[in-house]
Each structure stands twice: as C-alpha cells, then as structure tokens.
Amino acid sequence: MNREKFLDSLKVVMYGAESSFSELNLVYFDDGWMRSFNNRMYISCPVGSSFSCQVDIKILYNILSKMNDKNIRIRFKDKALFVEGKKSKLKLKALQGEEIPERFKELPEEDFSVLPKDFLKGLRLSHTSAAANDLAFGVLNGVCIKGDKVFACDNFRISEYQMEKKIKKSFIIPLKSAIDLLRSNLEMTKFLVEDNWVHFLDPEEKIILSSVLLSGEYPIEKIQKVLNKKEWAENVITLPEELSDSIGRANVLSSETLDNLPFITLKMNKGEMEITGEREFGEYYEKLDWEGFTSKKGMSIKASPDFLKEILKITNKFRMTKDNSALLFSTDNFKHLVLSIVED
C-alpha cells in the first residue's frame, strides 16, 4: 500500500487514540479497519488488512513518517505487527487494549443522512464561542446544531450560523470533538444521531468519526433574545487592512484555553488598535494606526486568532453597541457577538 496515504489515515485515527482509557495510545487493526477510541470519540478508517491487533500509534506514525519507501507491506505474525519497505522493516509488539464496542463496528452507510453542504463552515466559524471545558457551563461546553442553525455561546460570546438546509435531528457536540473534527480536514457529508452519539461519515474515504453528545436543553431562545435586544450604533466600523498579518504574528505567542484554543487581545482606542499575544515565555505587541475607530471610549476583546482569520474572509466590518459594551460581526447568514471591556 502507499505509505503516504496510510500515514494520512493514521493521522486521522490518532485523534481517537489521545487521552484514551489506557495510558497507551493504541490503534486497533480490526479485520480490514483501523480504529481508535477514548471516552468521547471513536474513529474508524478502512485499511487493507485481514488481521486483528493493537499497537502504539505514535511510535508507528513517527517511524513511518521518517521512512523513505513509497510503498509498504503490513502484516501480522508471531504477536507482532510488521511494516516492510524495500530496504527497511519495522516490528512492533502487539499490545493489550480495551475491547471495541460492537455498536461502532456496524454503522451501514444507508442509515446516514446528508449534512448541509456548509455544515463544516458553520462549525468552523462558530465553535470558538463555546465554553472551554468548564463543567459549570454544562451544555455551553458544546456546539448546538438544530434545524438550520449552528449555535455556540460561553456567556461572553455568541455565534449563530444559518446553514443552507435543516437537519432532522438536533445534537450538541462537545467543543473538543468539534475541534478534532475540523482539524481532521475530512469532508464529512453525512451524519447519524443515535442514543447519545453522533457519527460523521466521509463517503469517499469511508472514514467514520463518532462523538459522544452533551445532554440537556441548549438556551437558544435566551441567545436569540440577547442578539436581538442589543441596541447597536448606526455607524459601521471597518477593521485595519493589515490586521490579518498582525494576527498571524501575535498568534505565535497567543495564550491558550483548557481546550488548547489560542486567543489574543485586541485593544481599540481612538485612531489605533493594539494587538497582544502573550504566553508564559514571552509576549508580542503591535500597534496599528486605525482611522476607522473614532469612539472616545476605548474597548478591548479577547478572540481566537483562527476565528479572526475566518471572519476576515467574509467581512472586515462590525458594529458596536451605543455604550461600547459589545460588538457584532454579521453577514447574511452569520452573527458573532462578543462582550467587551470598556475603558474610560
């Protein structure tokens, strides 16, 4: 089989091997499939094998990525996995792991429904507004998909994205699972909700990513009331043209949340914007001239660099409340509200 293609599959499966029940990061070769799982996620990826065993996925990936062979052969013999190229051979002893639940082995494609084409776009724009793994926030630790809307909120930020079509079954996916789904770069076009799980399918690659769901009532009505209640100033503010490059530089030293979502600080004063990225080992600071901001009262927000890059692809404008307590990015199908710190 092609080594690079196999590495791509391994990289996807690694998301399910992280923080697993075992201290080991295991990949399961399961009679034609590679599988991995932890307490919130299962991933299944087809592979040309007819044996069953478990090995450490990080060791397998790290060594395979350094091999030069274009094609490799994978086989199982004498309680060990062999990966062989023309001039190199890797032998990994099989390890003992948890049993894979049967329910994740039997997910026929005909049971899946089609996702809206822009589902992943909505998830990418909205997910950074979810709470960062704080039990006190309950369902706000996830992203809610209901009808034709994607919602995320942490009581300081709100994101609402309207998809092209409605889905029949709503669900709340944990932020960590949403992050892994987006980082996998898979074209998930189908989904299945059953019991307390959602399964996403890439029909072309036949890869299935399953995530446990959060249970509870998502406060959609309250979120929409806040979005509609705010009194916005009439003027629309245009962001500095060079902001995207500044965000990229500040991102290098951005702080991180509990879910490893980076964030930077944007401080807005009359005629200027200050961008700061800070970590325990250093800080990056930059000031931009900015004629677009004329308010006498300054304000500052914390935002994900990834979100800011995505929002700049669709709009470079926002509005503020009359008292500068919040700002709003909006397009025809997306709204993002963030509360600010007002400075005298």
Key terms:
7 helices, DNA Polymerase III, Chain A, domain 2, globular, 25 strands, 344 residues, 37% strand, 3 domains, 8-stranded antiparallel sheet
Describe what is shown at a glance.
With 344 residues, the chain is of the alpha+beta class.
What's the arrangement of secondary structure elements?
Blueprint: H1 3-17, E1 26-30, E2 33-37, E3 41-46, E4 52-56, H2 57-64, E5 73-77, E6 80-84, E7 89-93, E8 113-114, H3 119-126, E9 142-146, E10 149-153, E11 157-162, E12 171-174, H4 175-183, E13 190-194, E14 197-202, E15 207-212, H5 220-229, E16 237-238, H6 243-251, E17 255-256, E18 262-269, E19 272-279, E20 282-289, E21 298-303, H7 305-314, E22 317-320, E23 326-330, E24 334-339, E25 341-343
Antiparallel strand pairs: 1-2, 1-4, 2-3, 3-15, 5-6, 6-7, 8-13, 9-10, 9-12, 10-11, 11-24, 13-14, 14-15, 16-22, 17-18, 18-19, 18-21, 19-20, 21-25, 22-23, 23-24
InterPro entries: DNA_clamp_sf, DNA_polIII_beta
GO molecular function, one term: DNA-directed DNA polymerase activity
Keywords: Cytoplasm, DNA replication, DNA-binding, DNA-directed DNA polymerase, Nucleotidyltransferase, Transferase
